[in-house]
Model the fold of this input.
Amino acid sequence: MLVIINLFVGSMVGLERTVLPMIGEERFGLLSTSAALSFIVSFGFSKALVNLFAGNLADRAGRKRVLLFGWGIGLFVPIMVIFAQAWWMIIVANVFLGVNQGLTWSMTVNMKVDLAKSTQRGLAVGFNEFAGYLGLAVMASVSGYVASTYSLSPEPFYIGIVLVVLGFLLSLAVRNTEEHVKTQSSEQGDAEHVSGWEIFKRTSWKNSDLASGSFAGLTTNLKDGMAWGLFPIFLTAGGLSVVQTGTVVAVYPTAWGIFQLFTGVWSDKIGRKKLIVPGMIVQALSLWFILLVDTYPLWIAGAALLGIGTAMVYPTILASISDVAHPEWRATSMGIYRFFRDSGYAFRALIAGILADILSVTWAIGLVAFLPLLSGIIVWVKMKETLQPDRT
Done:
């Protein structure tokens, strides 16, 4: 049930992935790239901030309540885009999308980890991320097709209303997972009393395993925020049609989603670090490859490679965080990690937009690629292997 729910959660983002950058340029006449990417900045910051508190809220109020509330917030997104008469309404709609994603996606991750054994966390998170990014990829392609067949708005966003209703109804049927957390806590031993600020410090810089994972997540989504905002502009400038652009944009999260089925469970067998380090390097190389080629098939290949590199790290870092954190404050620590990770959307959209305006879209993409490469080196040096098969 949680896998299906996260399929709908990811679809909410995919709905905008292809269409909104074009709406900014064609409908609202945004000539500045940084202005066109402002909707990603609003999405990224709101999602990141909600992640910061969602884990602690889940530990206190329960996972299911937070999940349902997130779907309620999500209903505002397609309605506001449909009736938007100015770009600021799109920006506000993406604030609501960020809140929706921060609450719903966080809860599906935490609930799956609650249900999994320590040696199956990679598998559980892999299924969760697979479903979310498969939904994102499918909906990115579908929205591009609907936009090319009808118009950029409102037709693609009618689908969003259906997604919210289905996600909410399915979430009503999900059981809470707090009893599993209590069982794991008793088996692992009572945790020392740890304040929220102490957990933040451990996840941010004090604990090298948690901190290096947080930086890897941040740079991964720095790259993804750039890809979201600049890939459609880069590809259409390269001569691709709206449908072709939508296909390339969709291939990246499709590969990302599908390969997480394998990378998550693979990390349960060989360890987390052995996938995170090469995965960060593959992301950097993929971005440079995309810049060096100039044909539709090769852009598809580059997008697929970028998705594979992202899949190597995305569920693996989440599993690594859950390895280190005690069950009693695991959701809080994962929320802080997701805060740093999803801040990457906003910072990269902001920085990439400025770089694209000052230099060019090509230079912006090329410079971004250095960050995942740097992160891979930091994980290689700082992170110890976190998988401990003897944990229950």
